[in-house]
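As the next step, I needed to go through one protein, both as residues and as discrete backbone shape codes, included below for the reader:
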Amino acid sequence: MKKILIAEDNPVNRELLRELLEVRGYDVCEACNGQEALTAIAAGRPDILLLDLDMPVLDGYETIRRIRQDPRMSDLPVLAVTAYAMQGDREKILNAGFNGYLSKPIDSVSLNREMQRLLASSDAANPEPAGRADAAGSGS
């Protein structure tokens, strides 16, 4: 099961994202700001981080900067989830080091498409060791 970390300060937005992801079979963890996200990543690296940009304590831009500078997590796929949807915002976000961008309100089809894209590219970059996938499927 793929582990997804949501870093979002708004509890309603966190709940919506969690429900949309859990119904698709993802294991979801939550953080209320960027500092909590960094702590959660250090405790157990997720497969993808969904990161809001405008949060207290540590915003999304500073969080992505720290992630990309740390060799232990620099290749973590990070999807920006934000209300910023003006012309130029997408390019600014991608140039900051994010792997993708979703604007709020969240569209479940777009979320699913981005999750599949990021997981496919992550799996291609980090294939499972031989035999591991077969062992997980045994017992049926």
Notes: The chain is about 45% helix and 15% strand.
